[in-house]
Structure formats: C-alpha cells, structure tokens
C-alpha cells in the first residue's frame, strides 16, 4: 500500500497511474506518468543506429511497466519485479524527489549510509564547493 502522504503528492492528472521499473540496485522505482514521460523522451531520442544506444533503450524499456493504484492506494507488483527486488509482504517505501522507491527492508538497510562522517563526506564531495578551486577567492 502506498502511504497516503506519497499518494497525495502525486500529480492529479496521473494520481492512479504510475510506471514501475527496476532500480539500479535491487529495488523498484515508481514514477508518476509526467516524470516517466521525461525519461522516455530522452531514451527514445537516442540514435537507434548506435549499438550502445539501442542496448540502453532495450534494457531501459524491458524493465518497466504501467501499474494502477486502487482506491485504497494498493498496487499489484508483477511477479518478475517482486523477484528482482526480493520483495514479499514487508516492504520499505520511500519518496525520493520525483520518484518512489520500493525496497526489501533488509536490502534497504544495507544500502543506506549509517555513518554521519561518510554521509558528510559524500555531501561535501557532490554538493559542496571545492576548496582547492583557485578561482574561488577565500575571505578567511
């Protein structure tokens, strides 16, 4: 069942229709249709005469499908996707910006960062300004 907070955050025009896809780690990703259409457009705009592009298109599309939420916010996850994500009765559902992730609770626990120093390092690496950048003027 999709938590009501996440269900209420879905765009009204596509609140009951979602696209489900394999995540890069063993989990599932749900996209509202407008978000999925952005990815779909980019993938399908790739050059079909380029072998690597064809492989990407084929693999991106083979692991996705449309699902409908019922009035209670439940969705039926295809068996092949359940197997891929190793999900059964208990799942962890999290909102991540423009998508919703569905995890096996044990695999989710293994995937998250537990060390605040490791998290701090990753944030600094990917979001902080590079202190070594000589174009930045240091005031202090």
Explain this structure.
This protein has one domain: Chemotaxis protein chec (3-Layer(aba) Sandwich). 40% of the residues lie in helices and 19% in strands. It has six helices and five strands, in the order αββααβαββαα. Strands 3-1-2-5-4 form a five-stranded antiparallel beta sheet. β1 and β2 form a beta hairpin. It is globular and about 40 Å long.
Write the layout of secondary structure elements.
Elements: H1 4-9, E1 17-22, E2 28-32, H2 33-44, H3 51-62, E3 64-68, H4 79-85, E4 92-96, E5 99-103, H5 105-111, H6 116-127
Antiparallel strand pairs: 1-2, 1-3, 2-5, 4-5
Annotation keywords:
140 residues; alpha+beta; 40% helix; disordered C terminus
What is the chain-wise order of helices and strands?
A: HEEHHEHEEHH
User: What is the CATH class designation?
Assistant: Alpha Beta
Strand order of the largest sheet: 3-1-2-5-4
Low-confidence parts: 134-140
State Rg. Answer: 19 Å
Shape, principal axes of CA atoms: globular
Could you state the CATH homologous superfamily? Transcriptional regulator MraZ domain
The biggest beta sheet, please?
5 strands, antiparallel
Could you report the average pLDDT, rounded to the nearest whole number? 85
Q: Give me the count of strands.
A: 5
Beta-strand residue fraction: 15-25%
Q: What is the CATH architecture descriptor? A: 3-Layer(aba) Sandwich
Count of DSSP-assigned helices: 6
Query: How far apart are the termini?
Result: 52 Å
Helix percent reads 40-55%
**Total domains:** 1
Structural class: alpha+beta
Q: Report the oligomer.
A: single chain
CATH topology: Chemotaxis protein chec
